[in-house]
Amino acid sequence: MDEREWLTDRFEQHRPHLRAVAHRMLGSVNEADDALQEVWLRIRDEDAESIENVQAWLTTVVGRVCLNMLRSRRARPEEKLSQVHVPDPVVTFTDTNDPEQEALLADSVGLALLVVLDALSPAERLAFVLHDVFGVPFAEIAIVLDRSEDAAMQLASRARRRVQNSPEPEPDRAQQQRVVDAFFAAARDGDFGALVELCDPDVVLRVDGGRLRRSASLVLHGAEAVVGHTRTYSMLHPYMVPAVVNGGAGAVIAPRGRLFSVMAFTVTDGRITAIDALLDPERLQQLHLTIPPNYDAG
What is the gyration radius of the CA atoms in the chain, in angstroms? Predict the structure, then answer.
C-alpha cells in the first residue's frame, strides 16, 4: 500500500468522527461535508505515516478548516447572527445502520444548544468544541488558533459559561416524547391552559423560514406568547410525525406526506424550555427526508 492509499484508508476510517466534529463546529450537515472535502484536499499529499495519533491530527485539521469557514460566515452580511437561524437538524424516524449517521446522532446536541454555539465567536466555539466535547488538549488547540495555551483555555472557559446557562435537556427521551405528545394533543384540542402548563414560563420559540418563508421567521419569549403563536398552526398538528431530532424528542410536520417543518423540543424538568422550528423549504429539501409510509395520508 502506497502513502496515498494508506492515508485514504485512515481518512475513511475516521470520517464518521470527523463529520461529527465538523457538524458540531458548523451546525450544518452540508457545510460539514464541505469541510471534510476541504480537509482531504489539504492532507492528501501529506506524509502521515509517522504521525502517532492520526485521529487527533485529522481532528485538528478539521478544526482549522471549520474555524476559517466560521470566520468567513461571519464576514458575510447575510449571515449576521441578528437574523433568525435554526441550525440544520439531524432527523431520524427509526434506528439507522449508517455509521456516519450514527456518529452524528451520538455526538449531536439539541438545536437549542447549537443556537448557543452559533452565538459564540469562532475561536470560542473551536476551543470549547475541540476540548470539552472531543478532548483535544489545549496545547494543540492553541496551535490551531495561533494563540497561547492560556488564551485557548480562557476562550473555552468563556464559551463554557455561555453553554452552562442554557437549559439542561431531560435525559429520558421517552419522558421528552410524552411531553411533546401532550403538547400536540393540547394544541389539537385548543386547550390553551394545558399548553401553558406544558411550557416553562421562560420558554423560547425560534422559527426559521429562510429566504422563501421570511415572513414566518420569528423569536418569541414566554409561555403565553409562544402558546398564542402555536395556536395559529393548530391545523397542521394532525400531520405531526414523531421523530428524533438531534438526539431528542421532536416532530416532522408533513401535510399529505410533504415536508413542511422540522421541530425540535428541549424538555427540562417536565416542561418545554425551547422549540426550534425549521420551515425553510430550501434547507428542508437538503435533508432528503423520507416520510414513513404510514404517515403519508392526510
Answer: 20
